[in-house]
């Protein structure tokens, strides 16, 4: 069975909406074991421990779940927004992945981007396209 690593702090890859999105993006989820990670640290740890997945789906803006938790615990929304900005993004994870591929001489896996942030999604796609062109 193939492996799919889903990086997203909010969107559940098993939700019907995202299962439909995956199907529209030519991903037959019956062929994949899906692992959901919600932040940069879990993303990098998963790959270091389990090796390269066959497919990775990226969200750009990570940390919304952390910000919501902070506000629920009494932190002001302003302070929570500042903390969220300090959170590593999906783009940071993508940069780490490119470095990992170069350092370990492995191919970039297939990838998709489910981010609602169009600029962030374009940045991730541009990074991968540049890497594939040059390496």
Number of helices: 6
Q: Remind me, CATH topology?
A: Rossmann fold
Question: How would you write the strand order of the largest sheet?
Answer: 2-1-3-4
Uncertain segments? none
End-to-end gap: 28 Å
Please give a quick description of this structure.
With 135 residues, the chain is an alpha/beta fold. 53% of the residues lie in helices and 15% in strands. Strands 2-1-3-4 form a four-stranded parallel β-sheet.
Structural description of this entry:
The protein is α/β, with parallel strands linked by helices and 135 residues long. The chain has one domain (2-62, 89-134): Response regulator (Rossmann fold, 3-Layer(aba) Sandwich). Helices cover 53% and strands 15% of the residues. Strand 1, helix 1 (16-24) and strand 2 (32-37) form a beta-alpha-beta unit. Helix 3 runs antiparallel to helix 4 (77-86) and helix 5 packs parallel to helix 6 (118-134). The model has no long low-confidence stretch (mean pLDDT 92).
Ordered list of secondary-structure elements with their pairings:
Elements: E1 2-7, H1 16-24, E2 32-37, H2 40-50, E3 55-58, H3 64-72, H4 77-86, H5 90-104, E4 110-113, H6 118-134
Parallel strand pairs: 1-2, 1-3, 3-4
Keywords:
four-stranded parallel sheet; 6 helices; alpha/beta; 135 residues
